[in-house]
Amino acid sequence: MMKQTLQPFYLFWQKLKPTKLFYASISIFLIFLLGSTETTAQIYQHCSSADIQKLQRLFSDNNSANTNKPVFQDCIQLQHSRRLLALSSNATDVIQDNAGNYDLNLYLIDKGTFQVLKVFKSPKGIVPTTRLDKVQFDLTPYAKDQDLVGIALKQSHIGGIHSSRRLLYLYAIQTDSKILAVLNGLMTNYNSSTQSACDDWNTEELKRTLHISNQTHKGFPIFLIKESSISSHYNHKNCKASAEHDQGRYQLKFDGKEFPIQHIKKTDPDL
């Protein structure tokens, strides 16, 4: 009697079993796919308020005498050592394109003693083509097993063309306290708008995202870059807008000195 009662449930389970196996297989595949692309590194953390107070003396000793220009400062805790990395960027006396030039200094600091282990002065500095709005650390971990730190520059322009852009720089912090500049000014975001004859706005937008692959080359991860752009322009004769969408994929490999980006910059919008 019990066997006859359970027989319908058994038949139902037999029909359901292939479906359950299918979804279980899909789940395992997705877990494997995510595991193959995710990084185990945690995002960088900003320095504590107590650490910032201790750094103020260091920053004040290196501040620019040009008080009419903004001063940019930031600090993070490195993941793979008990060290802090601080930045300070001050306006210099050199003026270019009414935007002004800035220096860029990085300080590698022992968190326990607050001894400055290394000072890195960017030989090129920062030469913004438009107004410089921010210089700050990017908290994204760009490597799994080493401190590869990003610095983001944000610029804007208000005039005939309203525009903003974000540039990414990468610095490798070595165990022997060396600081290497390995990526120089990759544009990750761009937006612009110009007023058309149709009382509306022509617009351009560009976004690039960096993804860490599971492969390395000459000691650094190989990056996969995904790019998407959209531009809309009005025909002044009929005031109808046309939109163009584009996508691109690139690979970034360290060549022994830096990550070359010339092949990517070819698609940068004109400023």
What does this structure look like?
By secondary structure, this protein is of the alpha+beta class. The chain has one domain (45-265). 20% of the residues lie in helices and 44% in strands. It has a seven-stranded antiparallel beta sheet with strand order 6-7-8-9-10-11-12, with no helix packed on it. Strands 1-2-3-4-5 form a five-stranded antiparallel beta sheet, with helices on one face.
Task: Outline the secondary-structure elements.
Blueprint: H1 2-37, E1 45-46, H2 49-61, E2 72-77, E3 83-89, E4 105-110, E5 116-121, E6 131-138, E7 147-157, E8 162-173, E9 179-195, E10 201-217, E11 220-234, E12 241-252, H3 262-265
Antiparallel strand pairs: 1-2, 2-3, 3-4, 4-5, 6-7, 7-8, 8-9, 9-10, 10-11, 11-12
Structural class: alpha+beta
Q: Count every helix, treating DSSP H or I runs of 4 or more residues as helices.
A: 3
> Uncertain segments of ≥5 residues (pLDDT<50)?
1-6, 8-13, 15-40
Gyration radius (Cα, Å) is 26 Å
Q: What characterizes the major β-sheet?
A: 7 strands, antiparallel
Shape descriptor reads globular
Helix content: 10-25%
**Strand residues, percent:** 35-45%
